[in-house]
Amino acid sequence: MSEALLSVRGLRSGYGAVEVLRGIDLDVAPGEIVALLGSNGAGKTTFNHTVSALVPARGGSIRFDGEDITGAHYRAVVGRGLLHVPEGRKVFPNLTVRENLELGSFARARARRADNLERVFSIFPRLRERSTQLAGTMSGGEQQMLAIGRGLMGEPRLLILDEPSLGLSPLLVEELFGLIGRLHAEGLAILLVEQNVAQSLEIAQRAYVLENGSVQFSGSSAELLATDRLRQAYLGV
Length: 237
Prior knowledge:
The chain contains ten helices and ten strands. It is of the alpha/beta class and 237 residues long. The chain folds into two domains: 1-81 and 157-237, Rossmann fold; 88-156, no CATH class. One of its GO terms (molecular function) is branched-chain amino acid transmembrane transporter activity.
């Protein structure tokens, strides 16, 4: 693997008296798709929030493009190009599609907002058609497109996708994973945090499996799928 774009070592984090992450090591190389897998409560979302500086780290280190960002403010993290598309989409329901997208360039790439908006509309023609529609009136699949489009407006170097297939129909899930593949083909590094194990491992180069806040297995997708005990105990495939 080439030098990591994101390098996490010994990461600990939690809420109040509860420690959720117990010493996580994880790397994402430039242009790589890495899957972070695990059941509900394994610590995936806490990991995302800690790397994105929404929850403070209690120990360990987070480096992005060679710089230590462990204690950085979340705006500084976004400014470096590490962008997070949260679980549940988190669009602004009372703003239009266009307004939601424009907010994606608030902290980064503001000068190229018009060009990036056109790029997002070319990737998601449905968003162009609905640019003046209130985001809260859109379907779940359309809101997921909007959430990803908003992330792309900030010209990410690494895009964290937190449960992007959650609540989508099988057809929309297929479309979503096709989109992730296209973004990867353009050179974008992606950390894919998912419960949809089979499709995640089809598209990712490597994967980590979390259980109770610790990495239980890591390796190439092929290696994980070839391990019978892992497939049966952790992946359900």
